[in-house]
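SAMPLE LOG
Freezer: B-3
Tube label: C17
Construct: single chain, 692 aa
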Amino acid sequence: MSTPPLSNPLQRIAAHIPGVVYQFLKSTDGTVRFPFISTSCEQLLGLSATSIQENAQVLIRCIAQEDYASFTAAIAKSEATLEPWHWQGRMVLPNGRILWISGASRPELLPNGDILWDGLLMDITPTKEDELKLLAAKQATETALLSYKYAVESSTHAISITNAQGRHIYQNAAFCRLFACPTVEALNREGGLGVLFADPLIYGEILITLKQGRSWIGEVEQRSCQGRLMQCLLRADVIRNEVGEVIGFLGITTDITQTKKIREERQRLATLVENSADLIGVAHKEGDILFLNEAGLALVGLPDEATAKTHHLSDLIFPEDRAAYQQVVMATVMQTGTWQGEFRFRHFQTGVAIPVDLTVFIIHSPDTGEPLGLAIMSRDIRDRQRSEAKLKRQAENLRKMLHKLQNTQTQLIQTEKMSSLGQLVAGVAHEINNPVNFIHGNLAYLNDYTEELLALLRLYQTHYPEPVAPIQTQLDSSDIEFIQADLPKLMKSMTLGTVRIREIVQSLKVFSRMDEMGVKPVDLLEGIESTLLILKNQIKPAANHPEIRITRNYEPLPLVDCYGGQLNQVFMNILSNAIDALHERDQGRSPADCQAHPSWIKITTEHRIEDHWIVIRIADNGPGISTKVQSRLFDPFFTTKPVGKGTGLGLSISYQIITERHHGRLTCQSTLKEGTEFVIEIPCHPPARRLK
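STRUCTURE (predicted):
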């Protein structure tokens, strides 16, 4: 059922109302249309009433996309509740103009189920624009106020405000922290801002200046409410209203106590740098020089700092050392942040190398830790090097003198010992030799006499087989047959014994020769054999040790110009040490082990024809010598034997005899648990001037 059209008078009234009067109908099938809309829509919206009545979407499509959802939501709510419809939103007209529209209508449910809204659309664009401007201004003001408040409250500077009479009325958080004053009221109870000044007269001068309308800035000494003194920078200014009247005062305080200390420290540091006798410089990260102190300029021969700034750090380095500077110094600085050691600078005027103690390190930002540049410090060490060289020479001379003194001491001790021993051995050998020669010489006659007597006895036995009774009695008691058989053997044994005694005496005489005649040709094999003969009692098997087998691998040797007695002493020392080591090792072994793996000493001689040197090797299969002990083997008084069994002089004296007296070489090669070999090398015919 359709709504009857309005009468013409009503249409004329609707046409003159400031807005658009309309009827909006929504059918039960969901279609919508405008049964009536006043002709004022053309003036307001630029749309004809006929076009809107023919197609409701002509008007609905003008609703701005941003506000369309709120429009449909308001329609749906009014439809569901039959409550009045209200909506404000924007419409985009065909000419592109945007209007703010306020809509209001009242719904009516028709008998057929359709809903009809009678309403009015009003243009509220001017009002809405004013509201938006006011809202924007309000928001801007609030934002500005919040920004100012945030800036003041978050400032690290202490900010305070007083009224025109000087009464404290505001303080920010930094002010509370700096002066240890929690509130404005608390400070006013203490007496106001004036109590924060160490000198009240200064505060009075500041107030006078401000009341005259002038600003004040300067450094003052202030104290907190807890009594802590501070050096502060104070900036005080006048606060005026819009007509220029003074309504208060603003104070901004900065604690510069630490800054002032840093400034003073920097000043002192600058003074130290300039007055330092060492080179001190600063450069870019890339190495371009920024600063070089006076001592540095003088050290490298540059006229002034401006000239220094035209150079790179590497220009200071002596040319031959620049590659090492880049590869070692700068590589280490880039990796670890610092390098320290000795290097060489060059003098720009003379080109000479200047040895310096150099330190290079990276300067880091105290805030970010980023590298800012390079710093170098160096000290001229030429005087120190000269002093060190002098001290080194003196130390070397002292070392040589001490070594010589030790050698002399050991030689004196050993010479005295060997001299006494040699004299004793020579005396004993001489005393034994005379009676032994007497006995040995008479044994030949005694043997002849004995043979003659035995021959005569055999003749008597042949020709007088029946002796008289007394002779027969004597024959029966004497066992003459045994005497006849054993007496030649006895004579032969006595002869061999005297020969053996003569050999021992001869070995003692050879070993104990005291070199009274100096250097002379000597048969070294004879000296070795005489030494072995003397040591035979320690080599043959005994109750407390097994036999040590001696292997001789002799090559015929020429006579050697040398001190024979001293070389015999060397043989004795080396062989005795080998025997002691083998005995000590064998004491911990079973008889079966000793039998299966016997101890041995092998002596090898060699004549090197190409250089006329004699080589004597004395090797054993003993426990060996550790590397640590080998390094000290020839040191005076060094021994590994228990106290009382070794003096530590034997090998030291042997080394001196071979190397100093005979200008040869004495070396040791040893492996633990495998054995040891001593190698003696001496020239056959050294120049006489070398043997002193």
